[in-house]
Design a protein that fits this description.
The protein has helices at 11-21, 38-47, 60-65, 82-87, 89-105, 133-146, 181-193, 204-210, 238-252, 277-292, 379-389, 406-420, and strands spanning 25-28, 52-55, 72-77, 110-116, 154-156, 158-160, 164-166, 174-176, 198-201, 228-230, 233-235, 260-265, 296-297, 300-301, 306-309, 365-368, 434-437. It is an alpha/beta fold. The strands form five sheets. The chain has a nine-stranded parallel sheet. The protein has a two-stranded antiparallel ribbon with strand order 7-8. The chain has a two-stranded antiparallel sheet with strand order 10-11. Helix 5 (89-105) packs across helix 6 (133-146) and helix 11 (379-389) crosses helix 12.
Length: 484
């Protein structure tokens, strides 16, 4: 990221939340260059009836804002902390004291879970966290016991669904991945012994993204897909089949009654041809309707699915190694505005409530000069530089800005960098190529953003400084320049 690194709910409404969907949760990620103030996000959560929130780290501002909110909290420990917590019980005790005990006792934060790591056994990590995750889990549990919190606060590990698989391509063939089978059984036994849940992230979108032959309709909940038959059981959507594959894996190994939490589930809205508003609304609304009737799944009928939507707000500084869609999972834009109609069953209006009193910078944009030439040799390095330090993930085939012409692509890149740098004049000085305009360059569905006023509550953020001179930095040349 460079120097830009980052009213009270009435009884009737409360009852409707409990009776309808058991209290849907949301993931609140903070990898964004211009965060909403934590108090604004908590208000957004409350006004939309979210009763649970999952954090990816122990962000002090977020936790403090959640105090006395009535929202249950799962607080996360990042993977890069697992080594220190695994090697020292004292380190775990210090972490719990600072990030759990203090917030519960001093700030009245309703912390219910500590998430130890995040998808640490992903095959793409090449085993980096295999030796540290379980010991860290054990040490955090010991620290919670010492702090007298183990009856209230439970440990868990949010795991990707790739920790289990079916040898028969149907749920009943489910078992834990062969290379981590013994490790998983040790963790599952530990969770069971301590009354803690198994947390799994399930993403039908990722299956569609990685497999061109994946049946699209099977990702959704409309019943339009060719069903999957498993003995006498029929599956009409991937979620139920994936969830029950885990149930079979647990049951097969003697833990069929272990509590399951769906830590992440959702659909992105941009950055890929299948990441769009229509599919996202269809998936998330279908999921909410699917779980609202408390039908459970074929292996756990009549059970309330405990889930956290992924995610609450877009994050423009997330890694895009998995794909450009990574920055667009939110049901709200970065500034807390709802993207599409979604009835969570938690509000009287039956629709999302956007953030209010959001303050933006001036209505001005950085674009390519009309006099600038497309064949100017400074174009490619300038666009590459801008995109490497800002966010151009809405550019590309099938995306919201995929229909821009070459000049539009260049202008979008320049403006993204300009806005991320809080509209500093120096951020729109691409050599002989750029200019500031007060005419909105938005084209169709491709919105040229105006950023929010920077929030300076985060101690680690240094907004407003500019990186090295353009002439000294050459980022990766984006595919969009091939059209020049």
């Amino acid at each position: 990221m460079g120097c830009l690194s980052l009213p009270t709910i009435g009884l009737v409404l409360l009852c409707s939340m409990v009776c309808t969907v058991g209290g849907i949760g949301a993931n609140w990620g903070t990898q964004t260059s211009h965060p909403l103030p934590p108090d604004t996000v908590v208000r957004l959560l409350r006004q939309n009836g979210f009763r649970k929130v999952k954090l990816f780290d122990a962000d002090y501002g977020a936790l403090r804002a959640l105090g006395k909110s009535g929202i249950e909290v799962m607080v996360g420990i990042p993977n890069d902390m697992l080594q220190s917590l695994a090697s020292s019980v004292k380190a775990a005790e210090k972490w719990v004291a600072k990030n759990v005990s203090t917030h519960i006792t001093t700030n009245n934060v309703d912390i219910r879970y500590v998430a130890v790591g995040n998808e640490p056994f992903l095959s793409t990590y090449n085993g980096s966290f295999l030796r540290t995750t379980f010991p860290a889990l054990q040490n955090v549990q010991s620290a919670l016991i010492k702090a007298g919190l183990s009856n209230k606060v439970k440990v868990t590990i949010p795991l990707n669904a790739d920790v289990y698989a079916s040898s028969t391509d149907v749920p009943s063939g489910g078992d834990f991945r062969a290379d981590i089978h013994d490790l998983m059984l040790g963790i599952v036994k530990f969770l069971n012994d301590n009354g803690a849940p198994f947390t799994v992230n399930i993403y039908p979108f990722i299956s569609l993204y990685t497999d061109l032959n994946f049946p699209v309709e099977y990702a959704f909940f409309d019943g339009n897909a060719s069903p999957l038959t498993d003995g006498g059981t029929t599956y009409y959507n991937m979620f139920d089949a994936n969830y029950d594959t885990l149930v079979w894996a647990l049951q097969k190994n003697g833990y069929g009654n272990l509590q399951i939490i769906v830590g992440e589930i959702g659909w992105p809205t941009d950055g890929d041809r299948n990441a769009n508003l229509v599919y996202a609304q269809r998936f998330n609304q279908g999921f909410m309707s699917h779980i609202s009737g408390q039908k459970g799944t074929p292996m756990r009928p009549g059970m309330q699915v405990d889930a956290y939507l992924f995610s609450l707000i877009d994050e423009d500084t997330k890694s895009i190694d998995p794909g450009n869609f990574e920055r667009h999972w939110g049901i709200f834009t970065y500034d807390g505005q709802s993207k599409y109609p979604l009835n969570l069953g938690t509000t009287n209006s039956g629709s999302l409530v956007s953030a209010q009193n959001v303050h933006y910078l001036d209505r001005k944009w950085c674009v390519m000069k009309p006099s600038a030439k497309l064949d100017d040799p400074q174009v490619q390095p300038s666009v590459s530089y801008a995109c490497s330090l800002a966010d151009c993930t809405k550019l590309g085939y099938g995306t919201s800005c995929g229909n821009l012409d070459a000049r539009g692509n260049i202008s979008y890149a320049f403006n993204s960098y300009y806005q991320k740098n809080n509209q500093l004049d120096g951020a729109c000085k691409f050599p002989n190529l750029s200019m500031i305009t007060k005419s909105d360059p938005t084209v169709g569905s491709c919105r040229f953003e105006i950023t929010m006023e920077p929030y300076y509550g985060g101690a680690e953020r240094t907004l407003g400084c500019l990186p090295k001179p353009l002439s000294l930095v050459f980022g990766l040349i984006l595919f969009l320049l091939t059209i020049l």
